[in-house]
Amino acid sequence: MKKAILQIENLTTSFRIQSKYHAAVDDVSFTVNENEIVAVVGESGCGKSALALSIMQLHNKQRTKSEGTIHYKGQNLLTLNDTQMNKVRGKELGMIFQEPLTALNPLMTIGKQIEENLDYHTELSRDEKKSRTIELLTQVGIPYPERTYKQYPHELSGGMRQRAMISIAIACNPALVIADEPTTALDVTIQAQILDLLKDIQSKTKMGIILITHDLSVVAEVADRIVVMYAGQVVETGSVKEIFNNPLHPYTRSLLNSIPSATNEKNRLHVIEGIVPSIAKMDRKGCRFQDRIPWIPKQAHEESPHLHEVGQDHFVRCTCYKEFYFQDEGDASTHDITQSR
Amino acid sequence: MWKFILRRFLVMIPQLFLLSIIVFMMAKAMPGDALSGQEINPRANPAELERIREDLGLNDPWYQQYIRWASNAVQGDFGISYTHKTPVMDVIEDRLWNTVFLALVTLIFTYMLAIPLGILSGRYNDTWVDKTVTGYSYIGFGTPIFIFALIMLFVFGFALDWFPSGGSVDSKVDEGTFAYVVSKINHLILPALSTALIATTSTIQYLRNEIIDNKIKDFVRTARSKGVPESNVYSRHILRNSFLPIAAFLGYEITGLIGGAVIIETIFSYPGLGQLFLSSVSLRDFSVVTAIVMMTGFATLLGTLLSDIILSAVDPRIRIE
């Protein structure tokens, strides 16, 4: 049995929009174990980042409320005040952000920004902090750590900045790192390097990683388990193997079907119709995905969909998966791009 | 860096040249000259006045007068003041220092008010604190400085008699003594405070808006994710970034205060450059007028250079080579 690091139970995070609260993360539960990478996937606006910021308690408290529990080392993070939470943030939980240029302070050297983490969570002397920082920079594969220590963010390339960002997140050997789309702002070759680096660090430190992404190829490469989110809810969870081999929920299948394939050059790329509903306007009863698969009869959906266990550790929301099929299955010729050329 | 500064100084030469021609021609275009006032004097002989004009070269074509004036001005000699009968530089010197002191004290008051109020207003935006500060700012924007200064002068200069109502120093104290310095400062406070109370409002709003912009930036969220306490998130991340444009503006601010002291110096009868400028214009004392405009122009150019240097010093992204 694996040791659980973080247990999220019935987490609901709501934002206030004109005096009414709307849930952006709706009754989400999952567990992150030691030495495990859990990928949270979904389109933009599905509540992935809102989930990450809820775990870190980085939402604006005046406009947000979080309910449920986030268990970490025997305490519920949601009940901690700011001072207590500051002892957890940076030390126990590290976070990597999407855009490494804007996520780093333009007026501070890379070295100072990493050391700032050590300032608040360790008792190291000034020299020890510096050597620890150099060590971290070396660990994340920065070629000239002594020079980079004194450089400012704008003097580094995107990949180097993201490496620096990672070293900030892992500075105090956290038990869990939340990586919010860590490769989205980088080009493809650098993406692969950064993912390898994360995987490498994780295997050495046995830490858990929550990897938030919309890129399923990233997931396939590094994750152990997948949590698919749609409109604030978890619609399917399971091991990577299970989800890629036997996807059930229409949303998961649509996402997988949207991955461009090298062998299927003739057909047009699959597109999921419509957009993610906005949290203020969406209908909270019934299956939230039904509007984007209108060809599936309404009776196929549950009235109040919940997660069904369909295999070992494999859960799917709603019953519509049983009757789901792709609209364009069998008549791919109408989408043949050679005709439009 | 030094190369950059040198290059900027070289660029100033044609700029100052152009300015001098414009200033000289405009001064000459004013009706009358330094002797016009004497024409209504019954004891002045018109022929004698004409002879003095000829001696002073006032009847020569403008370009001859300009060349004569410019070649002296390059050597720091702006000629003789027609009304004071002493070299222009002597007339200007004391007043220049008075204006510089006034500008510095005004600047200190301005930032002493703007920094704490701007920080409070930006950090606690949309609370009653912010609304009070913003309310004050709007009143400040809407109040003409000459009205406000008159009210200040009346209340604190006459009615309460806390501060002297004119001059730059008490005539009874000797130069070089401690009492002299105290008297100087005492004379500065009222005009400086009057200007600062109005001028600070734009800096307050600027700082407030910078803080509101910066506190939602990604790097602030990164700082919070490191467990940095809120007070340090402000001091190390938000405020440093918010002060950048304010610091860069400092150079222009100094120039503005030196050039814009006309109204405040006149109201407080403070013997500075602004007051001298106004009286020289009405007395057609061209040599003083042109000298003051040239010096203000030079100060403006220096101010922009100072701003560029400050910005490069505080922002690592900007390096001047």
Automatic annotation (TrEMBL), chain B:
The keyword Acyltransferase belongs to this UniProt entry's keyword annotation: no
Domain of life: Bacteria
Segments crossing the lipid bilayer: 9-27, 96-117, 138-160, 188-207, 243-268, 288-311
Cross-referenced InterPro entries: BPD_transp_1_N, MetI-like, MetI-like_sf
Biological process annotations from GO: transmembrane transport
Subcellular location per the Swiss-Prot or TrEMBL entry: Cell membrane
SUPFAM superfamilies xref list: MetI-like (SSF161098)
CDD domains the UniProt entry points to: TM_PBP2
Topology with respect to the bilayer: Multi-pass membrane protein
Primary localisation category: membrane
Keyword 4Fe-4S: no
ABC transmembrane type-1 domain segment(s): 96-307
UniProt entry keywords in alphabetical sequence: Cell membrane, Membrane, Transmembrane, Transmembrane helix, Transport
GO cellular component, one term: plasma membrane
Pfam families: BPD_transp_1, BPD_transp_1_N
UniProt-listed PANTHER family: DIPEPTIDE TRANSPORT SYSTEM PERMEASE PROTEIN DPPB-RELATED (PTHR43163)
Family: Belongs to the binding-protein-dependent transport system permease family.
Protein name: ABC transporter permease
Organism encoding this protein: Peribacillus butanolivorans
